[in-house]
Design brief:
The complex is a heterodimer of chains A (173) and B (73). With 173 residues, chain A is mostly helical. Chain A is 71% helix and 0% strand. Chain A is built from eight helices and no strands. Chain A has helices spanning 3-8, 12-34, 37-53, 65-84, 102-117, 121-132, 137-144, 148-168. With 73 residues, chain B is an all-alpha fold. Classes of the chains: A mainly alpha (173), B mainly alpha (73).
Amino acid sequence: MELLARFAAGDLDAFEVLFCQHQCEVFRWIMRIVRNTATAEDLTVEAFWRVYRAHARFDPATGSFCGWLRRIATNVAIDHLRRSRTEVPLQDDLPAVAPLHPAEQAEMRRQIFCALGKLSPNLRGAVLLALVEEEPYEEIAQALGISVNAVKVRVFRGVRILRKELSQVGAYP
Amino acid sequence: MNEREIAEVKKLLKEALQPARDAELGRDLWPAMLQRLDQRSIHVPWWDWALLACVIALSLFFPGTIPALLYHL
């Protein structure tokens, strides 16, 4: 029996193979949204947990496993942003871009994190994926389960809020 | 707002934030996944709690029903 069909039937061995094949890709995708290694690892497990629970709903004949997986991973990451919005300040554990003026760079990062924190999880996800990660709008739309135009609207609204927030602190010319 | 302004905000973001697309997974997450799969959390549905509350209320307000309830246990 084909791997995906075995997974859809609830075969744990098939799930393990799929997990090993896709864990890095899911981790990287979630990382683009939450920007924290430990959180992204936890959310990767959470995403696969949801995938495993929903195995019976996956139809290998009609659905793309990768697309389905990415959609679930995106939902998990956005849910996390929603939950943690008021709990922890937005930050990441990625290395900063090589700064010309470290002090100014640190202050700019702080202001940008602060401004990003003002965005709703949906807007923040769209802005990070489109502008920082430069993912194609079509791909973002598929992952979020919305139209390309809706992604553009989210990015537009997110940029408008960011511009306003950064202007208020003098970080936007 | 036009494309130029979007490009300006994008430039600001990219100057401050490193893209995460090259982030590497430092460890195999399968053991954590197995642990998650093995968790047998006891999930009690809300209607079970409601039923329990009804039984307690019944016992408190109509103590005469307690022997009947015990008989059916």
